[in-house]
Amino acid sequence: MTIGSTPARDLRLLWSICAGAFLLRLATGWLLPNINHPDETFQYLEQAYRLITDRGMVPWEYQVGARSWLLAWLITPVVAIAHAISPDPAILRGAVILFLSLLSTTIVPAAWRIGLHSGGRRAAILAALLAAVWCEVVLLSTHMLADSISAIPLMAALAAGIRGKEASIREIVLAGLLFGFAIVIRPQLAPACALAALWIAGIRPGPRWGMMIAGLAGPILSLGVTDWISWGAPFHSIATYLHVNAAGIADIFGTAPPYAYLTREAAMWGLALPLIAATGLLGIGRAPLVALLALTVVATFSAVPHKEWRFIYPALPLIFTLCGIGTARAIDWLSRRQPGGDPRRLVIIVGAFWLAVSAMIGAGATMRPYWLQNTSQIRALDLASADPKACGLGIAPSSYWTDTGHARIRADMRLLAATPADAPHFNYLMLTAGLTPPPAFAALGYDKAVCFPRGVCLYKRPGECRPSGRELTAPPGPEVSARLKALGVL
Fold first, then answer.
1. pLDDT, mean of residues 458-483
2. What are the beta bridge partners of residue 448?
3. pLDDT at residue 30 greater than cutoff 80
4. Sign (positive/negative) of CA torsion 361, 363, 364, 369?
5. What is the spatial distance between Cα 375 and Cα 28, in angstroms, rounded to a whole number?
6. Which of 331, 353, 371 is at the close of a domain?
7. Do 387 and 325 share a domain, yes or no?
8. What is the C-alpha to C-alpha distance for residues 52 and 55, in angstroms, rounded to an integer?
9. Fewer CB within 10 A of the terminal residue: the chain, N end or C end?
């Protein structure tokens, strides 16, 4: 019995892997809450929350129009539903994790299709398994970042067009559409998408180019319309983003040499590096397009001086899809060498081995800090929000606004800069960076409620909050502010 062109047993297996991927993302996202980068709060979640509640901080990117509203709009329905259910920030966080877990799980059937075309059933199983469980992919999959979201249409586009010259009109148009979404979400993926589009549509201009361009046009036009509606000019966010970053704004936050991503991944993978390299190289013979796309993504971001690990996230599902295909190729070779063996048993053993490798790397010293990054701040904000008498939360130093956000506190609470003069306007105080409260706070009745690891402490006082006070804001740093003013955009 088959459903479409996929045997029912394979369909059940694929659904099982998808279910496992979803539950793994959901469990780790909920049990190990963390913030990988302030962007996931302030560029997307906070802005969606601001649309729903009219409360929220506005970072400089949204003051000058250097960010598209597309991703904030994507998450807005989730924020609206969670806010309608409860003002509890834990409910909102859970809803976002649920949504992103579902969204990220779609890379699993994409990896299956890529593996199936490139190496057959075993390659499909192993590619889907690695896309489902690899620790780095799982970690960032529940974070609302352009990097993690853009990986989803990128993988889907490759799956749609994986047949290359044999791809149908529908597959080419769909690939173009999905490449377009990857580009508008993360414009730095344009070189990789362009190379893949040429691979699928052909080097020479022809009807297939028209199909690909037709697909690409929709998302790109949607970005233009979105910017026109939100910023008053088509493609305003892209033009402003390029303008400010050409002046070196990103470099203010740090630079690294071109090989930084390679050395970081080598440190992350440790003893598993030879296995990943060997299976990846084996996979290139059967899936050169996957390798080309992954290498182009890494090369593009390696050429940019400012580097963050999350930037190359779109390459990770591709790399481990390639490893799955390469592993299947190794199993095929072993099966031919030992005709009496059971390849199905070998697939199970090798799959379990990959699971163990992923678990060991995920629990290793290099990755462990990422699972716990800003967890203390989340716990402190949750604890303050759980007290029905909490009416305001002061943050000290106020420069640590990046650890907070209105979307991460109860909807009826206020978020303020913590100074003794403003103390009557809040009854909870969160100190970060290992600070101790000034004597003035103790004189006002603040007692320690609880301290969390990494220098985060929560204090509270009896009584209510006065209105007004100095609301917490999201100002750019002095050097960024000076550069933006020199450019005439702030």
1. 91
2. 459
3. yes
4. positive
5. 13
6. 371
7. no
8. 8
9. N
Q: 371 vs 433, which has greater pLDDT?
A: 371
Residue 484 contacts by C-beta under 8 Å, 6 or more apart in sequence?
60, 64, 244, 249, 476, 490
What the block records as the tokens of 448 is 């320690």
Contact 321, 131 (CB under 8 A): yes
Task: Identify whether 326 is part of a domain.
Answer: yes
Scan for tokens 């508008």, then name that residue: 184
- Please count the residues of the chain: 490
Residues 139 and 190 in one domain: yes
Residue type, 178: L
Q: How far is CA 270 from CA 126, 147, 281, 363, 372, in A?
A: 21, 24, 18, 12, 20
Cis preceding linkage at 369, omega within 30: no
Containing domain of residue 448, as a range? 378-460
- Same-domain pairing of 271 and 290: yes
CA distance 418 to 275: 51
Opening angle at CA 408, ends 312 and 309, nearest 5: 10
Please name which of 110, 140, 150, 102 lies closest in space to residue 14, comparing C-alpha atoms: 110
Q: For residue 22, is it within any domain? A: yes
Range list of H helices, 142-287: 146-161, 169-185, 190-201, 207-231, 236-246, 260-269, 273-284
Q: 337 with 407, same domain?
A: no
List, for residues 135-185, the tens digit of each pLDDT value: 999 999 999 999 999 999 999 999 999 999 899 999 999 999 999 999 999
The total domain count for the chain is 2
In a domain, 482, yes or no: no
Mean pLDDT of 259-280: 96
Return the closest-CA partner of residue 305 out of 261, 262, 259, 255.
255
What is the arrangement of strands in the sheet containing 414-417, beginning at the earlier edge strand? 414-417, 392-396, 428-431, 456-460, 447-452
Say how far apart CA 211 and CA 288 lie, in whole Å.
23
| Radius of gyration in angstroms for the set of CA atoms belonging to the chain, rounded to a whole number | 24
What are the tens digits of pLDDT across the range 103-127? 999 999 999 999 999 999 999 999 9
In a shared domain, residues 291 and 227: yes
Are 357 and 251 found together in one domain? yes
Q: Fill in the amino acid letter for 49.
A: Y
Neighbours of 37 (CB within 10 A): 18
As a whole number of angstroms, the distance between CA 457 and CA 448 comes to: 7
Whether this prediction's pTM lies above 0.85 is answered by: yes
348, 384: one domain:
no
Say if residues 407 and 92 touch (Cβ distance below 8 Å).
Answer: yes
Nearest-angstrom CA–CA distance, 5 and 11: 10
